[in-house]
Design a protein that fits this description.
about 50 residues; about 40% helix
């Protein structure tokens, strides 16, 4: 008799691992962030007033 997981348990673990990897790969936004608004109205980065 083999010790450890059964074949069915290994398949379930493999499927659950694959689902977890796909879920983690799907989150997040592609590309670098960009400031909001039209390009001619963007005033970032701006200077803060000195006290």
């Amino acid at each position: 008799m083999r010790s450890g997981m059964t074949v069915q348990a290994r398949r379930i673990a493999l499927v659950l691992g694959g689902v977890a990897l796909l879920a983690l790969a799907a989150c997040g936004k592609m590309g670098s962030p960009s400031p909001p608004g039209p390009p001619d109205k963007i005033f970032y980065p701006h200077l803060y007033p000195s006290d």
